[in-house]
Each structure stands twice: as structure tokens, then as C-alpha cells.
Amino acid sequence: MAIMSNSTAVQMMGRDPVVPYESAPISTPSTISTLTGTEPTTNKETRLDPETADIIPNNTTLDTPLQLVTNALDITDDPSESPYTFRAFIIGLGLSSFGAVIAEIFYFKPQTVGVQPIFLIIAAFCLGETSVLIPRWGPLGRFLNPGPFSQKEHVFIVIMASSAAGSALGTEQLAVQSLYYGKQPGAVSAIFMLFSSQCIGYGLLGVMRKTFIYPTKFVWPTSLPLASLFQSMHLNKDLAMKRMRLFWYLCLGVMIWEIVPQYVFPLTVGISVFCLANQNSAVFTHLFGGTNGNEGMGLFSWSMDWQYIGTTQFVLPLNTLVNQLVGYVGCVILTVAAYYFNLWNAWDYPFLAQALFTSNGTVYNQTEILDKNNEVDTGALSAYGLPMFATSNTLSLLTMNMGTTAAVMHIFLWNWNDVKLFFATFAPQTIKAHLISATTPLQHWKISGRTNDQPSPTPKPFPGTEGDPHFAAMSAYKDAPSWWYHGVLILATAIGLECCYEQETGLPWWAFFTALGLAWFLTAIFACMCGITGFYFPPATAIQMIGAYLVPRRPVANMMFTLYGSNALMQAIAMLADLKLAQYAKLPPRATFAAQMVGTCVGAVLNWVTMNSIVESQRGVLVSVEGTSVWSGQNVQTYNAQAVAWGGAGNEMFGRDGIYWMVPMGLLFGLVAPIPFWIGHKFFPKLRLDYFNTFIICTWLGVLSVGINSSLMAYFVFGFLAQGYIRRYRPLLFAKWNLIVAAGIAGGCSLIVFILTFAVFGGSGTERLFPAWWGNNNQGNVDRCLYMNGD
């Protein structure tokens, strides 16, 4: 399966990246300086400088976040550059429109493919460099072509486009309402709901963003490869030129190679020696198969398809990779054991599946249990029977719940010093200060100590930023005032509440505000976790379960609760990643805010237009079980099925007497999971129990429940090679090339998948299959495991 493609990144080495500063293990002088806030030594003899590799001692390390961000990224800046150019807005709006439409189209495809930031970076660079050819004759020429295409313009464009280039979760809600409930909101109501659900996350965390962006410890790994690519495209240095050449070589090479596994020789997506040796064993299919979707665990399969291997294994910290490996092994053991011990009547359903089933294994028809108001009729539910899950899906729901509360407990035990400033924001005296601040909108950053009428003194360090040159450079720019974010929050909340009632979703006002409060709280937890470890998984299951408890028997209300509880969290995380990228690339905060808001609003409108067109023209296909080779309603069906299960029959299925009562108990299991490790570390620190992150482990215990799983072996091999060997023993090589290698592979995959989707995979309306031969078995599992036909 593809491993969190939106989490590609670099982070600090795994010397305990998720514990408070003062309790982190200390082993080198540079580590001490970073964790205690003192200025690190940066003289010629000790600082890692890729341009002067011949004078770097062999014992140089990249163990700390400060070492990483100062040696892997350039720290120079030109404050005279402006991102506010006509071509930046035009290219940004053009790519935003393109990305929003393509992302929504792909959402209704049999294989969902996202529009990757690497693709947008390349497209923006080509368009920006082309605009330089416009003659600069007269004022009009200089307006259209203000000079060389700058890094700030480039970053501004990409943040705007990436904010738009996704399928808004709200379109999923609208599609379900239209397809399954016969209630299509009007255009104005639908678009405003998308505005609200997409922007409310910005408002929720925007006023507290400094807590998770400024401190150096919050590296935000997803932003590092992108920042490195921007610098390689724009910095006029020999090393940057070499990196750019390597990027294009890798990009082209991967594009050529990916035609093989994607089209010509699909067996290379996952080569299973076990399945090739025994092609008639159901056990081998479940355990070793994984090249087809929902086939098996993919154990010991070797993938040669970079689309599924991804690039996160190159750049996530070793600590994260180790915890993922523990969770992966546990997932294989738990899933196989649960199935073969017939837990939750596993033998009545497919080994891996996401749909709802009746007790006899057929697909569940929800229309049998809904009344004319789209609420569950208890009599009809009793007569037709409860919906059932495949055992693997049930385990996934259980472990995702565990991961949610494990993250909460882990952060409070290990990282309280990192998040206490966030919660202190809501102390009475702090709220009063915010209100006073909001009355003075045109002020500079508080950390800089400036006013509009005074010169800037030496910036006052924000806690955790001591010695960080990227943070220091940003003091040259005005921050986006807090009242901007306050305004977004108030406006988005008002619109969202109005949409809940105008669209007759059945979600009461108090439940709506509960969803927002839940999103705000979980954002603090997951922002801290993602900013440090580079790993994030949306806790949608836990949010949906809470919504089902608060508002039972109302599937549409459950979807709306999930939309505002989960989507607000995801948007806040995306916003923070963009802000960190802006800090690395020295894009002014106000420009970042403008790019995010413009891109998000443009994307919401075009998402709705595209979704509405597809739903109206492909209605029959989208509600069918199998779909076609061009269109599929699998994502909409899954979203609706979860709402029916949780919102419609939650008490019967997940209550004390329900068959799946253990799923909500996962929240309790997750709260307990980190405690033994924390207590053990306090009494036996030499055991290094602080190395285990139960959030990552618990989440990965259910990670194989869906999709193509043959890529995991390659994922870990490359990951441990990059982070366990090259970073530790070849830090110069790592600092110079690792980020650009990750970007080159990701860029090549993004481009070729886009091309193949329209050229041969039916994106243009006609599918052109490669001629059948032994390496592309179209009649069964590609890896030659026994084809179970969904049984």
C-alpha cells in the first residue's frame, strides 16, 4: 500500500524525538546546546558545510533538529523579493483551478490518485520560467514580467495551488446526500458549506500557530523535501545546480521505469516468492499476497513500484520507522490470527473489505432500514438485520481508536512542555491579552518587539527557537495579525451552523460546537505529534463514534459531525505544514495566509462544480457495487457505509451488548497503552522505553486493512538504509543529497501516474490495456497467489 504519501519528509534522528526538551537523552555537546536553548557551536572546525566538505571532521552528526535544518537547507534570504506579482497570482490561480478539478475527478476513479505538491512545484517552475521570456517593453511588459522568477513567487504559487488541489471532504458529504438520500442542497448553500468546512480549521489553530511553528523542535518533516527542491531550483550555487540535475535525472528515470510496473509488467508491483511457489493456497494468499487491492498482508513481498513504496522511508526519523515496523509486525499477527480464529464471524466475510455486509455475507442495502426522513427505522432494522464488518476492518476501527487516545496520553506524558503554551492560550489573562491585541491590527510580530513607529531591536527569542537561523530571518517580515484568523473562525462557524439547519442535516447546534471543540483539542495533540515525528493519521473513527453517541439514528447528522470534527483538524495540520514551509523558504506570513485562503476558496468552488457534474452524469455507476473501469463510487460508498453503521445502528453494533463492543473500548485501551512505557522509563531509563511511540504502533496495528500491501518490505529496507546507516555514518552525503533524491522520485511518480491515467487507464474515457501475458495476469491476482474472488 502507499504509505502516507502526504507525510514525505525528513526529521530529526530517532534519539527520542517525542519527549520534552529537558528529559531528552543527552549524548553530545550539540545535543545539549539544542535541548537547553544555548547557542550551538558553528565554527569552521565543527559545522557541517556541504560546500566545504574537505574540512569537515568524520565525527560530525545530524542528531538534532537544529543540525538538520541548518545543514540540509540554505539559510540565506533576500527580503527585497516580493511574492505579490501579477504572474504569481495568475499562475497560482491557474494551477489551483487545474488541481481542484483533477483531484475531484480522481476522487471518483477506481484508483484514487492525489495531485502531489512535487508535481505542482515542477509545473509552477516551468510556467514561471516561461513568463520570463515576455518582453519587458514599457510599463505593461514590466508588469507582466517583473524580472527573474523568484523563490518567493514560486512558494506563493505552490501553497496557493496545493491548498486547492484536493477533494474537499465536504464534496463527499454532498455527493452522499445526493446519491443516497435524495437531498441535493442548492448551489449557494453547498458552496458556502465547503467554504466553511475548508476554512474553519485555519481559524481554529491560526491564533495558536506560533506554538507549533516557531520552535525548532517542530521540524514538520513534510515540508523539508519541498523546501530543498525550491532552493535547488532558485539558489545560484554550484551545489544547487548539481542537486537540480540530480532531481531531473531521477525524475526522468523514475518516469521511464514506472511504465514497467504500472502498465507493462504489473507483477513487479509485488513479487511474492511464496505465492509463485504455491499458487493454490488460501493461507498463502492471505499472508503473502498483496499486489492486488484487498488481497492480503503482503508479507515478504518485494515491490519495485515507487508509486506504492513512496519516499517517506527515506526521510522519516529512525524512531518513527522503528515504531512503524513494530506496528506492522503486530498488524500481520493480529489480522491473520483474528481471521483464522473466526473472530467476529470472520469466515462469513472477505479477508479484507471495507463494505457493509448482512449476516450471510451479502452486501448490505441501507435503503431497507431508512425512513422517509433518512433516519433509521428501528423496526426495519430489526427485520432486515444489523450491518456487519469484515474482521480486518473491525480491527482497523479498534486500533485507530487506540491510536487516537494513545496520542493524547503520549503527548501529555512526554511532551507536556511542548503543548502547555497552546492550552495556556485559553487562560483568562491570555484571552484578555488577545482581545487587546485584536484591537491593534497593524502591529508587527510580538516576538520582534517592534511597533509601527519604532526601529527593530534585537528579536526576542520565542521559547525553543534559540540559535535557529530560519526563525531569526523571519523577523524581517510582519506576521499575519491574529484578528485575521479570529475573523475566519467566526465567519466559518456562522456559515457552517447555518448550513447544518438550512440543509436539514439533523445536527443540532450544541453537537456542531462539540465537533469544533473536539477538533480544536485533537489539533493540539496531532500538530505536536506530526510536527515532531512526521507521522499523522486522521482520527476520523473516534470522531464519528462520538458523533454517533451524541446524535443517534441520524446518518446525515453523523456525516456532518464528522465533516466539521475531522476536516477542521486535517485543514489545520495542512496549514501548519505550509507555514513551516514558508519559514524555511522565507515567504512572508501574510503572503502565506493570502495564498492559503485564495487557494482554498477557489478549490472549494471548482470541487463542487466538478462533483456535481460527475454525480449527475454517472449516478447509476456511482451507486453500483462494481463501478466501471473509468468511474467508481467506492469512496462515497465507504463514507456512507460508516455513517449508516455509526450514526444509524451504533448502539446495536457498538454498545455494551453489540457484537463490536470492543471497538469503542479501543479508546480506553489507547489511554492505558503509553503508561507502562512512561513508568518504566522513569525507573529504568537505560531500557530506553521512551523510544516507543504507542500512537504510531497502535495506528499501524490496523494499517493493512485496505489497499495494496506488497510495498512494506521495500519501504522498511530503504528507510533503514537512509536513516539508520547513511544519516548516522555518512551525514555529509545525507545532508547534500537525501532530500533531493526523495523529491526526484516523488516527482517522477507524480508525472507518470498523471500521464498514464489519461493515456491508457481510462481517464480520457477509453481504457487501453497492455496485451495479456504472464507478467500482467488480468484474470486473477497479479502476483499469482490463489484468487479468492472476494471470498
Automatic annotation (TrEMBL):
Family: Belongs to the oligopeptide OPT transporter family.
UniProt-recorded name of the protein: OPT superfamily oligopeptide transporter
Pfam families named among the record's database cross-references: OPT (PF03169)
Compartments where found: Membrane
Any one cellular-component term (Gene Ontology): membrane
Membrane-spanning parts: 88-108, 114-134, 155-175, 187-207, 246-264, 325-344, 395-416, 483-501, 513-537, 557-579, 591-609, 659-679, 691-717, 737-761
UniProt xrefs under InterPro entries: Oligpept_transpt, OPT
Annotated membrane topology: Multi-pass membrane protein
One of the record's GO molecular function terms: oligopeptide transmembrane transporter activity
Keyword annotations from UniProtKB, A to Z: Membrane, Peptide transport, Protein transport, Transmembrane, Transmembrane helix, Transport
Domain of life: Eukaryota
Keyword Ribosomal protein: no
GO biological process: protein transport
